[in-house]
Amino acid sequence: MIDDTTLDHLGRLARLAIDPAARPRLAADLDRILGLFERLKALPLEGVAPLAHPHEQCASLRPDAVTDAGGVDALLALAPESQGGYYLVPKVIE
Amino acid sequence: MTAPPPVALAALARGLAERSYAAGSLVELALERAARAQSGLNALITLAPERARVDARRAHQHLASGTAGPLAGIPFAHKDLFCTRGLATSCGSRMLHGFVPPYDATVVERLDGAGAVCIGKANMDEFAMGSSNEHSHYGPVRNPWDPGRVPGGSSGGSAALVAAGVVPFATGSDTGGSVRQPAAFCGITGIKPTYGRVSRWGMVAFASSLDQAGVLARSAADCALVLSVLAGHDPRDATSVDRPVDDYVGALAEGVAGRRIGVVRQYFGAGVDAGVATAVRGALAVLERAGARLVDVDLPSLEESIAAYYVIAPAEASSNLARYDGVRYGHRCADPRDLADLYSRSRAEGFGPEVQRRILVGTYVLSAGYYDAYYGRAQRVRRLIAQDFARAFAEVDLLAGPTAPTTALPLGSSDADPAALYAADVNTVAVNLAGLPGISVPAGFVGGLPVGLQLVAPAFAESRLLAAGHALQQGSDWHRATPAAHWYG
Amino acid sequence: MSAAMDSAWEAVIGLEVHVQLATRSKLFSGASTAYGAEPNTQASAIDVALPGTLPVPNAEAVRLAVRLGLAIEGSIARQSVFARKNYFYPDSPKGYQISQFEQPIVADGRLAATLGDGREFVVPILRAHLEEDAGKSVHDAFHAATGIDLNRAGTPLLEVVTTPALHSAAEAVAWLHELHRLVRWLGVCDGNLQEGSFRCDANVSVRPRGATALGTRTEIKNVNSFRFVEKAIEYEIERHIREREAGRAIVQETRLYDEAQHRTLPMRSKEDAHDYRYFPDPDLPPLPVAEALVESERLALPELPRARHRRYVAALGLSDYDAGLLTQERALSDYFEAVLARLPGDAKLVANWIQGELAAALNADQRSVAATRVSATALADLLARIKDGTVSGKLAKDVFAAMWAGEGGADAVIAARGLAQVSDDSVLVAAIDAVITAHPAQVGQFRAGDDKVFGWLVGQAMQATRGKANPQRLNELLRLRLLPPL
Description:
Chain A is mostly helical and about 90 residues long. Helices cover about 35% and strands about 5% of the residues of chain A. Chain A has a domain at about 5-40.
């Protein structure tokens, strides 16, 4: 059951501002979607291991070589706000 | 007057090589058709004529000097979630409106290397989340068979372009059916390869353990030709499988003689339209006549596939989309008050409602206290589904059923209950959960709207799928039909 | 801390050390890990988290993790799992950090350390896991903004986590020094604290002495020197005790050490406990570690510093202090071993020279052992000449200086400068007799029982030979000549 507290919590975790006017509809939609998952609870799943990757494969590794040499300008140019080679965000206080 | 039946891709390529068609002519034709069809179909987000002409000229040089790749000079479109260096890549989202990647996806590199000419970026459901292509920041795409209906999604733009005859093929991506279902709704052929068969490097991620690049084209033979260019190991993708690529084109002639096709009971569930079921059984009869043997099979865990998929895919998406925060690229809100405001407002403005819903669902099912009940259980169901498929494939060579329970829905249906729409993906999602290859081939019409037959094969048995699709298309004409409407004059 | 507090409470400390692995490129991308580059010049498309980019693990990072895992007697997982730790922060570009959660590459393990008073203690290690580092924030260089540099983002780290088995700041620092020495010894990490290659976080709690349950803990982060780690932990223990004795509950939080004010303070922007929503990274299938890799690393493991220290004391007879100095750094220790191989049985002599002349010369030139201007073989040659009497120990220092300056090997320098020791009795006696004749007063004092003046007389005789007299022979002959006439 998605209530206001849960919506607040999810919005914070996901860094998504939720328009107050949209809340009721959103909560109702989320409830219906979560309703699709109810059937999972009753399934007999003891002894079944989770499947994270479809195939029995291991990650391929790469050799320790510096292959990326610069191109900084192209990447930094994509940023909405940058200065002096740094990406900028509103001041963070630690 | 109906448009002339489409020419096979191989024939087009041959025609270019033999100079039967002037080198840039196919590209010019495609550009012109794309421009004319755009207002009616809205199938493209970006049309790139200058770039296409440059590429066409290069293809011409290669053709002249005999160094051309297998698709030299052939026009096509990329779904707008493949990063194309120097060309806007939006993923159908305001979040990436105007984003120009500084690099090419592997899929892009390979088609470029084959000489194919990209004319533009196809419209899609935002970040590949949707089954109707109505969730795009750039507006809905219309089905060439009926402009009041959706083309399917999320690769709706790609499907519409091919169905309307603008380009002979387009790339798509398939996470829960997003290549196969639009292919079905638009009366064309769409293949999703085995997970790991085609590199995901540069393909913007939705759900990383489910996403695969796919091909939409007019026939299984055309798909085979394009897939043979795309498939192969890529060290830049740790999930890419290092395994030789089969000769897909050569295998087409194998047909279906002696193949056992398992007709999946769960794929003919209560939600499946009677007309669709009839059409699909008709297509299966064609395969029988071509030598296949039909067997009824039961995959009980498929009934849980929607629940499992809609836990896992949004969970992975919620994490994959966390990078969109207005800091290094993409949409940034104006005058953020502080960091928290920067994040939450940029993301609320940049993402459409369907994406936001899925991010919230995904966050929920991974969150403390809920992980075991939802994500943990969904991953276990995933294993059961994979096991069901494996058991079935010990008895049969292919599995079959309708690709989608209905024909193309009317525009505006997605305004209804999202949960109900999710349920319509029941025939396609399990294939992604198990990482298997699947194809949708035209199987007739109901009320003038296309129906798709889905075939599923064991991992890395794309040849078997393509051969079966080809056999169906040699014994039927549905794939040659074109929409009555003239989308480009 | 008062003795009364001491006995009533027990401090319980667990350590988490982020060891930056000494690779050339990052854990998941080919960007360089070199320190000090201009901002964002070592951040590739993968590190900036561009859409569509994917991680591929660095094989050398895996090798180094296996090496350390074996050295701490841990068990190496033949398959371990990368997991996503999801949280939003500007220095974490993907919005998640790729780490390891339920199945780390190294499980269990142990590492012993020794306190100043000689007490040895063993700390069980819970796990060591691979993860990528975050970028850096610069807070004071921009108007109303924070600048983000992603050069460090993606650098490979191995996080070593102990059980809460330490009970004092002294233990914590001793253990950290031990781990620091080990990772440098193995070439796994350069251990540069200033550059952030070795970062220590401490989890601190207290409980009534005798209790078994753990008290609420606080975490101290971002302390960049061993000295401050010790002070911070001491402060925090006292603070916990103070609060608990006053009846106040400890707030579980992360704190920073304020070096100026000598106290810990709560971190401000850290929110109430993160929900990291760990799940296996779908972009990364399980990480394989081949048997062959484990075996080759096991075979290649050098004698570890603690074992070597023990051997130096037990088998070579070196003092604990000397053994400690000679096992601080592998290169120096290996140098010592190379010289010792030429002069077995002279461990003390070799040790003195390495801690003395060699160390001083290296320091003066700011050279590492690897860049020494006198090789182990060359030094061994010189020490051999001391042993066989060719040159006195004192003059040998001048020879060393000349060798360091590039004048050649020991024999060449000795010959060129005519420094060979005089052991010819007739020459020595002549010098001695001259001294005795010149200094009758001091001779008289000696014969009267003043033994101290003997040293002065030796010095005079040595000067007369311009320092080249063989000291033992000079001593013997002088004593003989000073005996009163019969």
